[in-house]
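tool_call: predict_structure(chain=1)
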Amino acid sequence: MPHESRRAAREAAQKQHAAREADAERADARERKQRRARRVRITWITVAVLFILGLAAACWVGFRALAVKDGLEQSQQLIGELQSGADVTATVEKISGHAESAADAAADPVWAVLEWVPAIGDNLRGVRLAAQSLDVLVNDVGMPVLADGGSDGGSLITKVLEVTKRQSARVAQLADEISAVKESSALIGPVRSGVDQVAEVMGAAAPAVELLPVLLGAEGPRNYLLVFQNNAETLALGGSAAAQTLVHVDNGAITMGSQGSSASYQNGVAVDIPVDQSALDLYSSYLVDHLNTSMSRPDFPTAAKIMRAWWQRDIAPDDIDAVISIDPLALSRMLVATGPITLATGDVLSADNATALLLSDVYRRWDSYAHPELVDGFFAAAAGAVFQQVASGQFDLKNMAIALSESAAQGSVLVWSEDEKVTEAIAGQRISGILPTDNSEATTIGVYFNNSNGSKIDYYTRGSITADAVCEAGTGTFTVNAGLSLPLTQEETEALPRYVQSMTFGTTFRDWIYIYGPPGTTVSNVAVNGERVDVLQQGIDDLGRPTVRFEAWFEAGDQVDVTASFTGAGDFGPLAVQTNPMIHPTVPAITNTCR
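tool_result:
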């Protein structure tokens, strides 16, 4: 083949090869483009599906959230009606349905998944826990207690015992969980408000539900010493220790045991119990060698240990798990819940007459100097009758809760126990009978009127308290004025039974007024107003506080006033005043605060 022909053939072959390669490259390009297009379509389809699913989930949870919101709001409205006096059983039944629907809506699995989403997750978790907490308290605790029937035919005490044993772990778990989510910074306003409210309720409910089985003897029998104080002879914690009863509790069964009164003890012989020297300096040996004055120091653990020692030495060496103090002011509130009670004497004890009957009329009926056992016995019988009614479960639950709550807040019910769980549960509350040890939450001043004349005149006396706080440049000055008056005429005072008059001074009376300043301060000024008013002691540190002790003599129509100021450096909470639970309540007037 000629040379030219061979070259032409090669060139033709090369062109054909190039054409084939070009065709292959174009085919590859088309295939790559198609693959990219498929991937884009898949991606967009996936995104679209996820978006649609997310939107659907959000809408679904949104609808569920509206259901939860509606259930919680309806429940909150009904709780308000309950607090305003609505029928307990009927209202709780209504709350039950709303609480259950809210909890069911928040238990949705989609809701649970979205709780893991940042920012919104804690809000959803908080709403769920609030709904579940309300549901458990209402439907698993409240409704079974209020329901008719029960293992013993309907005993309220037994039902409370059974329910709290069954639900204590669940309530404690929810309390811990909602307390944890409460700390989240992601909570939005409405959610935070609701979570805070429910967390506070659960924080109080959890220890109560946990402790009730123990206190009711589910884990073994327990003995409680009940001390009944007489506010007609006022002392710092309420009044003289008029009567005592041992209460035995075993698996929900409550029985009244031995009783004691002033005549049952070796007065004048001190009980062997360690007491701070500062307490003896302020209150003398009478704090430990005379039963009736054991309530003089404003510290219930001190009084409770002294009372327990008196009982174990002079009555019986019983194991005593706790000491509970109560006064006629609390009994009168409890009688709203129990209804009137007929005593063995034929007297009908009611909320309307309890205070007058126990703290005044009884002294006109019997001469307590001639027959002290009759007066003390009547007092103990009245208190015992109320507690028998409570022990049998024959009372209105809502009114009893109100009575105990109000009485605890006023200092008319006090509790002490060496059980650490009990101590922790009541720590920081008035029911513990312990003054605050710092000023972080409040700067508390204690003002206490102590009857020191052996009379029962405090059925008639009136107290008044004003307090003022000024904080400048890191220094706080706290001034408190305490007044005491006897709004009777001389003729009225002379007509009083001799046991109501002063045992030593007749129609002249003496009070020791104690003022406890805030922790971290010192006494900066004292003043008195009255011809027979003096400063007896000042600057003694007791219970971690500077104190001033005044002596005030008064007669019919008199008004005596004492003033003390305290100064110190530091950060002080809002000013507060704590005082005796008196027959005629003393409401402190606080005119200024540091916060």
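agent: The chain has a mean pLDDT of 83. Proceeding to next step.
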